[in-house]
Amino acid sequence: MSETVKIIISICVYVVFAPFAGGLLAGIDRKVTAKMQGRQGPPVLQPFYDVVKLMNKETVVINHVQILYLVTFLVFIIFTGALFFGGFDLLLVFFSLTTANLFLILAATSGHSPYATMGASREMIQMLAYEPMVLFTAVGFYLTTGTFKVREIIDYEGTLPVFLLPGVFVGFVFILTIKLRKHPFDLATSHHAHQEMVKGITTEFSGKMFAIMEISHWYENIFLLGVIALFFLNSEWWSPLVAVAAIIITYFVEILVDNTNARVKWQRMLSNSWLVTIIIGATNIFILEILRKGVLNWLI
Q: Where are the alpha helices (DSSP H) in the chain?
């Protein structure tokens, strides 16, 4: 099988099956959360029931450009995952993800709702909080494997990247709490009923628009867990098993953090994220670069 055919198959599998896996993950998330809180919880398939119900509800559109921005957000999220699972450049993948989030902000602010506008402002602050760590993640993979290409990182014949990037991994898991919209960093919008801004950035989304938002997050969550897997993948046959275990443990930790922490103010989120990025992420990159230059000088 040629490399091009493998890429096409990988992209098609992501596009077709990612929303089902993401919806199932959301259902498991809600079930585990309920157990932690001493409740029975909804069925695991409840997220799918919710989206079907939203599809059948009336959609109130403030203006036509709003739904255009939201659909573009979905398209770029799918494009981001397709680039990643297709094995393309990691920098391009993260750039596409940032572009998607910008369209989400535009969709929220186009409705001129004070709640949505406040949510959009917090979304931009969240981007400022996690983008430096995302950049360090891409740089870390390059320093470890010598490439930004996802498929080449997966085929790397050296040690698992996480052994050389422990600080970057911890930093990425830290900002993953922001991307998964979990406590204590679910400032722009929340999956919980006690959000002080009603639903923040999604306040003006209803019916099919809110369904698009949910499906977009399903796609995005699968992509984000794929990045977690990348830390534990190399050319060894057993590395996918380690990657699956790492995904399960990481997501459970995120659920645990979500249920044991209260929401913080945006100032604390921003300062904590930057401190983790600078102290843990940047230090890891700095040490890795020193080791890399030392090895090159020794070889010379």
A: 3-36, 46-56, 64-85, 90-109, 114-145, 150-154, 161-164, 166-179, 208-230, 239-260, 266-276, 283-299
- Report how far Cα 257 is from the mean position of its chain's Cα atoms: 16
Q: What is the pLDDT of residues 194-222, one digit of tens each?
A: 555 556 788 788 888 889 999 999 999 99
- Whether the CA torsion 262, 268, 274, 276 is positive or negative: it is negative
Q: What is d(CA 258, CA 252) in angstroms, rounded to the nearest whole number?
A: 10
Which residues does 296 contact at the CB level (< 8 Å), separation at least 6? none
As a whole number of angstroms, the distance between CA 122 and CA 15 comes to 29
- Ramachandran sector of residue 263 (left: φ over 0; alpha: ψ -120 to 50; beta: rest): beta
pLDDT digits (tens, 9 = 90+) for 21-67: 999 999 999 999 999 988 888 899 999 999 999 999 887 777 788 88
Instruction: Take residue 157 and report the two structure tokens written for it.
Output: 């014949």
Asked if 251 and 27 touch (Cβ cutoff 8 Å), the reply is no
Rounded CA separation 104/217 (Å): 11
pTM comes to 0.93
Single out the residue of 82, 97, 87, 100 nearest to residue 15, CA to CA: 82
What separation in angstroms does the CA of 137 have from each of 96, 132, 162? 15, 9, 11
Neighbours of 43 (CB within 10 A): 12
**CA–CA separation, 201 vs 56, rounded Å?**
22
CB atoms within 10 A of CB 290: 10
